[in-house]
Specification:
A hairpin with a 4-residue loop joins β5 and β6. By secondary structure, this protein is of the alpha+beta class. Among the domains are: 107 residues, no CATH class; 67 residues. It contains seven helices and six strands. Strands 1-6-5-4 form a four-stranded antiparallel β-sheet. Helix content is 48%, strand content 15%. The protein starts with a strand and ends with a helix.
């Protein structure tokens, strides 16, 4: 089987909880009743959505942490062996199949409001791509994607090769998404993970300064960027992050100026 490579995607933010759950609801309601400019209302609504999304991400992190603490070591229940096509020898190994992983983790995940599903792409002459999506009932979800060529080991036909690779990638995307230990895996696919360049410490500090000036937090940005920590931001997305923060600051400044024009005089009397 071909080496696996983790694939990072710019994915849309998972649906956030209703804005009605946000503490900014009263502020939004007041803004609408007072006929404030649409730009101000949009800014307040956007901030409310970000707060709700941040709450959902925190709930997801807490649930996943609690679930992982309860998931035991998964038993390797399958023995596999086959002769090499070039007659150079044979391969034999043990591993846990997808069914064994599911039997172990499904009840625990459900207990903590977590679920998972897979998305698969298999185009002609292209690597097979499998994405595992882990979601929490509060609305936040995270994804892990791996790709590999067809498994032509043993005496599999073309359909079996595809099925074998899909199952293989489902196992590993699920384990990676849940953060399960993968030590002592010996199923013969010595993966050469391709490292993803992330931003430098100086770039991280620059983003932190920009976020502070824009009235946003690192947690809010990470929720929108679909990363766990600001240091995990891929280097290729650094300039885009600066642009997003600049737009956020411009909208915030415009909203503040509009508020000052609307209520500055009345507040002073």
């Amino acid at each position: 089987m071909n080496a696996l490579a983790t694939k990072t995607e710019d994915l849309p933010l998972a649906p956030a909880p209703s804005v009605a759950s946000s503490p900014m609801l009263s502020l939004l309601s007041d803004a609408i009743q007072k006929g404030m400019p649409i730009e101000v209302i949009r800014e307040i609504k956007e901030m409310a959505k970000e707060m709700a999304a941040d709450e959902a991400r925190r709930a997801f992190d807490a649930a996943l942490s609690d679930a992982k603490a309860e998931i035991p070591v998964i038993t390797k229940n399958r023995q596999v062996g086959y002769e090499h096509k070039d007659k150079s020898g044979s391969t034999s190994y043990r591993h846990e199949d997808l069914g064994e992983i599911a039997r172990t983790v499904d009840p625990i995940l459900a207990k903590h409001g977590l679920s998972y599903r897979f998305r698969t792409t298999s185009e002609p002459n292209q690597p097979i791509v499998v994405t595992c999506i882990v979601a929490h009932r509060a609305g936040h979800s995270e994804q892990n994607t791996l790709s590999a060529g067809r498994d032509d080991s043993g005496k599999k036909n073309s359909l079996q090769q595809i099925a074998s690779t899909i199952t293989y990638l489902q196992r590993y995307t699920l384990k990676a998404a849940l953060g399960l230990a993968a030590s002592h895996d010996d199923d013969g696919a010595h993966a050469d993970d391709e490292p993803i360049d992330t931003i430098t410490d100086d770039q991280r500090d620059e983003l932190l300064r920009l976020l502070k000036d824009a009235g946003a937090t690192a947690d809010q940005f990470c929720a929108i960027a679909k990363i766990g920590d600001l240091s995990d931001l891929p280097a290729g997305r650094f300039e885009g992050a600066k642009t997003w923060i600049a737009n956020r600051k411009a909208a915030r400044d415009a909203a503040k100026q509009s508020l000052d024009r609307q209520f500055g005089g009345s507040d002073a009397t």
